[in-house]
Design a protein that fits this description.
The complex is a heterodimer. By secondary structure, chain A is α+β, with helices and mostly antiparallel strands. Chain A has six helices and eleven strands. Chain B is built from no helices and two strands. Classes of the chains: A alpha+beta, B mainly beta.
Chain lengths: 309, 61
């Protein structure tokens, strides 16, 4: 069981999950715990011979019942795949899995916020290379979604709706558009190649999306990720964060103004070989010092997305 | 692999629920747990942790 403390100086919770110190760390290809279990072979986390998408409770959870949840979402039984290389139908299916987990975890009384994310690459701390993501069910509203709700209060409406309208009006940072979603480098991106993917319509969560929107969201996300990989012609590390409405008292799955579904990518690379580190200004003062303008990043990413197809 | 089910002899046990009815989506409310074009098989691992297996249903709308 994790221990939660409150950092008064920062005004934020800190979670101590000391059992995670011993979690599986970069196992060999043959010992991947996210592979299907081969007949006659050692049992993995998924004790079936093949599967499409599997979700299981994390063996080393940051949160667990009755104070939250931590799940692993395995996208495929193909160890060498990635989110970007999934068949379109599988990526679309993943959106339905995300939606289902949001609804089911969000209905629990001990979960205030359902956070779906993917860490890709050792640069962002990945310990297993098999294509997968995670879901945390927080027993409290974490600081970032709280800031987003505060922005709505400050601006008197849905901030992602306003930001998207601004991006569409400006046009210089747009990357991918379809009938349901828009991908862009945000005006005030903190990371060099930060990308946001937002629904055109105000949808608090995946639960409010129709089948076509889910399919088009998957398509846009895959195009962005394939563009990332094409940018420097290497697997591109990132954190992918799905932002949705809180599910506890502070919001609610059906809350019309409690959030706007959007997916944020935080890639740590600023060149093919150089990482952006969170150093003095970022950690000590909370101010990102960026090395490139979002407009220039968008030009490079648009070209990469076009190359990747 | 579309429509493939978990191996009958797999060690996952307590397969306690079959798929939600695929319906092609919509704009559901909070209590809606549809899985769209997917079948869901709920299992429990030997150590008690939940395992959910999602697979695409053939001919889903």
């Amino acid at each position: 069981m994790s221990e939660q403390r409150f950092n008064e100086l920062r005004g934020e919770p800190v979670v101590y999950a000391i059992h995670r110190q011993d979690r599986t760390f970069l196992p060999t290809r043959e010992r991947c715990p996210l592979d299907a279990t081969r007949p006659g072979g050692p049992e993995t986390e998924i004790p079936v011979a093949s599967f499409e998408i599997a979700v299981f409770e994390n063996r080393f959870p940051a949160f667990s019942s009755p104070r939250g949840a931590a799940e692993v979402v395995v996208y495929t039984d193909d160890h060498d795949g990635s989110f970007g290389t999934l068949a379109a139908e599988r990526a679309e299916a993943l959106m339905w899995v995300w939606r289902h987990r949001y609804l089911e975890l969000g209905a629990r009384a001990d979960i205030e916020y359902v956070f779906i994310f993917e860490n890709r690459g050792v640069e962002v701390g990945v310990t297993l290379h098999h294509p997968h993501g995670q879901i945390y069910g927080y027993p409290f509203l974490p600081p970032v979604p709280a800031l987003e709700l505060a922005a709505d209060e400050r601006l008197g409406g849905c901030t992602p709706c306003a930001l998207l309208a601004g991006e569409l009006d400006d046009g210089r940072r747009l990357l991918v558009e379809n009938d349901a979603v828009v991908a862009y480098v945000p005006f005030a991106a903190r990371w060099g190649y930060e990308v946001h993917v937002a629904t055109r319509e105000h949808r608090p969560s995946l639960a409010a999306c129709g089948a076509d929107e889910l399919r088009l969201l998957a398509d846009a996300l895959q195009r962005v990720v394939r563009g990332f990989d094409a940018l420097f012609e290497r697997p591109f590390p990132y954190v992918m964060a799905v932002h949705q409405a809180p599910t506890g008292d502070s919001g609610g799955i059906d809350a019309p103004g409690g959030g706007h579904l959007h997916v944020e990518f935080y890639p740590p690379l600023r060149t093919a070989e150089k990482l952006k580190y969170l150093a003095g200004s970022e950690q000590g003062a909370g101010t990102f010092i960026a090395d490139m303008l979002p407009e220039d990043s968008a030009v490079a990413l648009r070209e990469a997305i076009a190359r990747a197809g | 692999m579309a429509g493939k089910r978990a191996e009958p002899g797999a060690k996952a046990d307590e397969r306690d629920e079959q798929a939600d009815v695929p319906d092609g989506g919509g704009a559901p409310g909070a209590g809606d747990l549809r899985t769209g074009p997917l079948a869901l098989e709920r299992c429990r691992k030997a150590d008690g942790r939940a395992l959910l297996l999602y697979s695409r249903v053939e001919d889903a709308g």
